[in-house]
Write a structure and sequence with these properties.
mainly beta, seven-stranded mixed β-sheet, four-stranded antiparallel β-sheet, 11 strands, globular
Length: 115
């Protein structure tokens, strides 16, 4: 299983970023995917999730209405569109999937929101 995140960077408050997660090594279309984040000195925080077929999406309250998760099972990719970014969104963002009892996570992509 390999998950590779990209798309992070520095952005001013109010700006947007689109994160990507390229998956390989498993049948992507069979699995729920999620984004989690970890701010410096804090624990992991669940951000958003999407059903295996993309029919349902889920969001944590702090990002609801600002972030949008999507996936393309033909491309084995999941995205996180982040709009109206705030300083409190600054974190290392990971995509994850659970296969069997194993939580698989990528290396993360850093998002920094600052003026």
């Amino acid at each position: 299983v390999q998950l590779v995140e990209s798309g992070g960077g520095w952005v001013q408050p109010g700006g947007s970023l689109r994160l990507s997660c390229a998956a390989s090594g498993f049948i992507f279309s069979n699995y729920y995917m999620r984004w989690v984040r970890q701010a410096a000195g804090k624990g992991l925080e669940w951000v958003s999730g999407i059903a295996a077929d993309g029919s349902k999406t889920y969001y944590a309250d702090p990002v609801k209405g600002r972030f949008s998760i999507s996936r393309d099972n033909a491309k084995n990719t999941v995205w996180l569109q982040m709009n109206s970014l705030k300083s409190e969104d600054t974190a290392l963002y990971y995509c994850e999937t659970v296969i069997g009892n194993i939580n698989n996570r990528g290396q993360g992509t850093q998002v920094t929101v600052s003026s």
